[in-house]
Recover the amino acids of this structure.
């Protein structure tokens, strides 16, 4: 009887693993509204190139060449050279269900990202999951800047005021459930960017099965 229950448990666990959605499925089932210039036929063509182990470059409906740069079981990265990127990561929750974390980044010319969450049926999830997505610009500046010990308060305040507008860019890690956020400084000169970089910091957040936590 004990052996029976062990076998039954193993079968249940195996079925849960098998039930996990793969990023390939997420990519192919993605609504056209997410990337209006890339319909399902074109997304399928990208996957075909990946399967052939060649560069997955396909001309989209805007007549631009897009590249599905990476496609693993839980991660995908698609980009239009010089203009935008789309990254997606499958996050596993404590109850074994999955969440799609999607990061769309536009470079105009500095990167600004939009982070959204969906279930595996592409139903939007109205949650931040611990990320600073709906906070004030002032709170973002406090979280993503740090005053060096040898810097005066006046200089720190001066540099902080240069970060306007306050914008964040984000990137997902290919091999772990980690997202990294950093400040973008679109209207600054190269010298000003160098000056501001002294106080700007990037923060990585790791998924713990429920929310992202800074680490």
């Amino acid at each position: 009887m004990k052996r029976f229950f062990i076998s039954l448990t193993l079968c249940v666990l195996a079925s849960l693993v098998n039930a996990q959605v793969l990023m390939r499925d997420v990519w192919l089932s993605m609504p056209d509204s997410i990337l209006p210039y890339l319909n399902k036929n074109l997304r399928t063509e990208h996957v075909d190139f990946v399967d052939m182990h060649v560069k997955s470059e396909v001309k989209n409906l805007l007549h631009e060449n897009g590249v599905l740069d990476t496609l693993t079981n839980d991660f995908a990265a698609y980009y239009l050279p010089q203009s935008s990127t789309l990254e997606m990561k499958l996050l596993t929750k404590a109850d074994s269900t999955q969440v799609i974390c999607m990061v769309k980044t536009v470079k105009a010319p500095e990167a600004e990202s939009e982070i959204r969450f969906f279930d595996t049926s592409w139903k939007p999830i109205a949650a931040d999951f611990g990320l600073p997505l709906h906070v004030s610009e002032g709170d973002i500046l406090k979280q993503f800047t740090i005053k060096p010990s040898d810097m005066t308060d006046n200089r720190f305040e001066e540099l902080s005021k240069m970060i306007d507008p306050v914008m964040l860019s984000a990137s997902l890690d290919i091999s772990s459930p980690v997202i990294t956020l950093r400040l973008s400084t679109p209207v600054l000169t190269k010298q000003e960017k160098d000056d501001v970089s002294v106080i700007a910091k990037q923060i990585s957040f790791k998924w713990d099965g429920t929310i992202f936590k800074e680490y």
The two ends are 45 Å apart (CA to CA). The longest strand covers residues 98-107. The CA atoms of residues 8 and 14 lie 10 Å apart. Strands lie at 57-59, 65-71, 75-80, 84-92, 98-107, 111-119, 167-172, 178-184, 203-207, 212-214.
